[in-house]
Amino acid sequence: MRKLFGSKKKKVVTDGPTLEDATKLSEKRGESLDEKIKKLDQQLSEYRAKMKKTRPGPALNSLKKRALTILKQKKMYEQQRDSLSQQTFNMEQITFTQQTLKDTVVTVNAMKSANTNLKAQFQEIDVDDVWDLKDDLGDLLEDSNEIQEALGQSFYGTEDFDEDELEAELEGLEDDMELGEENQEMPSYLEVPKEEPKINDQETEETDEYGLPMMKN
Asked: According to the UniProt entry, which residue ranges have a biased composition of type Basic residues (predicted)?
């Protein structure tokens, strides 16, 4: 039988409109109702203006009847608009709740992943080892400071001298040096030799073979 007539096809279940689609549709209907209410307000304004100018009688009663009909339509549209506004608000709240739940799921999963990673990382670290490491580093730094201090000390124990006595002795040495410089004569080999005055060749007198000046002609 199935081969002759074939098997029934399964109906494909399609997803219905989403809340976002329904919200947009509701907002669109609300805007349409607002336009209708606006037009009815304009008509009511026109009828009120005519009623002020019309004397009591059948004409005024006819205007009132039409105005009441328009007012009833306006009230009906306002009720529909208020109902749509409430529906739109409810759908927005549901959409917000759904999105909040999705965000919450993402947040919880992220926190679970972080918790797992933190536990794995803490398993690699021992708090006691950290404190021991800190103490060891402190001891090493202290030993290093002692070594540097020892290397910076003099081998001859110059730190044992009194600073005031050393300064007084230094001042005495400076006074002795100044006094010695005043009394000390300059050695002869450091003196600059004096130049003999040059005699002008023109002013020298001619002498004979016996060294006597010759008479000028």
From this structure: 1-11
